[in-house]
Specification:
Two copies of one chain form a homodimer. By secondary structure, chain A is α/β, with parallel strands linked by helices. The first copy, chain A, folds into two domains: about 130 residues, 2-Layer Sandwich (Enolase-like, domain 1), CATH 3.30.390; about 240 residues, Enolase-like C-terminal domain (TIM Barrel). Chain A contains 16 helices and twelve strands. In chain A, the strands form three sheets. In chain A, strands 5-6-7-8-9 form a five-stranded parallel beta sheet. In chain A, helix 4 crosses helix 5 and helix 9 runs parallel beside helix 10. At the A-B interface, helix 1, helix 4, helix 12 and helix 13 of A face helix 1, helix 4, helix 12 and helix 13 of B.
């Protein structure tokens, strides 16, 4: 079976109308997807992948992928699977494009969409959900697909093999057990910055009734308003439930130290993105100023080299990996392995377009192949789930393990045709 | 006087034919420019700016600039000058585009081209070379144009004012002295990886005869070949001249430690980019393994937040700022200030397209407004100088201070028309 074409579409949903996704820095998000379809000579088999953006710039990611197509067109799927890491380097270390990256920004987000589609294709080829395809690989086979470039001063392939082999000893061999794993989630649904007090209260109450126990709230307006909002949420959810806050990088290091001092009385599980997520040393300064308080970051950490430093420098307490910013599992797995080695819980970023669908696989892979921690949690936001053929399912505030083959991000044809930014009826 | 339009052209020179720019990771560079022209309602006044890329991806930078145009069209130049930092934040913290950056990669390179054109326009409006326009500004006025976001834990505006005021006390007030300043340069002309032994010897000899005393060589093939090339160059230039090597990030941290051990006997002024320039902690590990050896990096350091950490963490010994990767003087000046505070010499990256033309201004600004160090040096490579109306001038291995108004990167119309990637006769 052979790859015959790669199709890219610029899909944008007009979520800014409803203030979905609003935070201290992103005030008008139109949740978007750089949507990739890999066609094969078998009409019943195609790979689908995406990267998530918030509107403008989605076109740039789409255009980048034109440069990657030739690396896979005309390849047999067996051969693609065997040479996956080689192709990953051809794309991410492209001799001309790396100047405008490398391994970050537009071209790296595009690489994520492209390799997400490839992993989807390969797991469908084996008729398995992505998580199951990965769990079934021999440790050596899996590691041949992932990149250790620039990180072997912190984790070696030998260490990685050991981590996986130890976990494999205790992996449930009954598929029913794996498929019925329930993975705990938290919600930001009540906490967007654009919401009024009343809307926040109403939504927090609704989610509490549905069985949710972990709530995240955006902060980063003036600090008095942030305190007021923490008060509101704590009053609704009580002290027995968990609260997290997220300031989306709006503060300097100094601001972060001051503002966390004001908010920590609300018993916050973690402060997310207090300052720039390029600032490994800055995060550590904030932690040192507030012993006992915990920091989370990752949705904007550009690549495994920056993750490496955040982890080894004790600059974060929770790794919030993003399935569309890191260049697919080839790069995500090394971050999961480093998180395991340093015993850092992984709490994937989700929401947006397709992120919940992706991370439900990553959670299972991390739980059964890598992590030795007992704390598991994942973000959930039901934005745009109506557009997916098989959206992530939640029961009582927990993710239900997906069972269909592939990596779960196929968008309905109706939605694609309506919201294609170039040809869709909505935008025309 | 008012801005009426912004024109962007994708200019690519076919330098890969001659192996110019070849290094361990960039094997087929077509030196390119995202070329921006700001038109005003005065036919005699326009601003020209560019960012440098190496071929593919230049189109992505061009396309990004479409999103910035509206921030300046219809503005008066006085008003543009007054609101420069506000506009800089509108572009670099754009509420949707920041997701595909922020402050790095394609969109940040595009911001550099855009603001380079604006600084060119403003200094031409005052009929001064860019360096002179900046030197003439009051310290407070200058600092109102530069960004301190995310760096005030390492340098404050008050500290910056002090640095500039102290330097202003000893600035020569005779323009002739400033204009006749000669700024020492080094050359990489003999050291590209694609060159044969014979070509290297010949070029090194030629440049020695022309008065050059500082030579840089690319390394990063197999280490035996690197040693062989160091031998050749040292034999030609002798021990009295200065040698530097550049491995363009090809090594891991471990490789770097091993390979520097092999090469340091050649008395190397600095090892440039041994490993990924995202790796602040990695650079420090390499330095700690080789006390006394010096590291240089910067042409790929994405923004001032990463520079901040490299500097405060003692991870580099020379700041190689890039005039087209940092988003113009608004971001370069903060890096010069931090380098001054920590007494790190600044050795700008040059070569490519237009970089020599840009850094000749930055060198003068740094020498007379910021640096208290006595060591001054700047890269020079005469690639593509034939296409510029007023290319940087070198005498006896030193830069000659530019005297014409503006920021010096106007490309000849003939060259633009021939090498425009969309419409030029060369590519069609």
């Amino acid at each position: 079976m052979k790859i015959i074409d790669v199709i890219v579409r610029d899909i944008r949903f007009p979520t800014s109308k409803d203030n979905i996704g609003t935070d201290s820095l992103h005030i008008d998000c139109d949740y978007s997807a750089t949507y990739v379809t890999i066609l094969t000579d078998d009409n019943n088999l195609s790979g689908v992948g995406l990267t998530f953006t918030i509107g403008k710039g989605n076109d740039l990611c789409c255009k980048s992928i034109d440069y990657f197509k030739d690396f896979i067109i005309n390849r047999e799927i067996d051969e693609l699977e065997k040479n996956l890491l080689f192709i990953w380097y051809q794309v991410t270390d492209h001799s001309q494009l790396r100047w405008v990256g490398p391994n970050k920004g537009v071209v790296h987000l595009a690489a994520a969409a492209f390799f997400n589609a490839i992993w989807d294709l390969i797991s469908k080829y084996y008729n398995k959900p992505l998580w199951k395809y990965v769990l079934d690989l021999q440790p050596e086979e899996l590691l041949k697909k992932v990149s250790f470039s620039y990180i072997n001063d912190v984790i070696t392939e030998d260490e990685a093999i050991e981590i996986i082999k130890e976990k494999k000893k205790i992996i449930p061999n009954n598929l029913d057990v794996l498929e019925s794993t329930i993975f705990p989630a938290y919600t930001t649904a009540a906490g967007w910055l654009g919401y009024s007090d009343e809307k926040m209260k109403k939504l927090a109450n609704e989610y509490l009734q549905k069985g949710w126990t972990h709530f995240k709230m955006k902060v980063g307006q003036d600090i008095e308003r942030d305190i007021h909002r923490c008060d509101i949420i704590r009053n609704v959810i009580g002290n027995e439930n968990i609260l997290m806050v997220d300031s989306n990088q709006i503060w300097s290091v100094k601001d972060s130290i001051e503002n966390i001092n004001e908010l920590k009385k609300y018993n916050i599980l973690f402060f997310e993105e207090p300052t720039s997520t390029d600032d490994i040393l800055g995060f550590r300064k904030i932690k040192d100023a507030h012993p006992g308080e915990k920091l989370a970051t990752g949705e904007m950490i550009q690549n495994k080299i920056l993750f490496k430093q955040f982890i080894e420098n004790n600059s974060l307490d929770f790794s919030q990996i993003d399935s569309c910013r890191l260049a697919s599992l080839n790069e995500i797995i090394p971050v999961l392995l480093m998180s395991s080695k340093f015993d850092i819980p992984v709490i994937p970023h989700a929401g947006g377009v397709g992120l919940c669908e992706y991370v439900q696989h990553i959670n299972i892979i991390n739980k059964f192949l890598f992590s030795n921690n007992t704390f598991f949690l994942c973000e959930y936001a039901d934005s745009c789930s109506e557009h997916f053929e098989n959206p992530a399912q939640i029961i009582n505030g927990s993710y239900v393990t997906p069972t269909k083959p592939g990596y779960s991000v196929k968008i309905k044809d109706n939605s694609l045709n309506k919201f294609d930014y170039n040809t869709g009826v909505y935008w025309n």
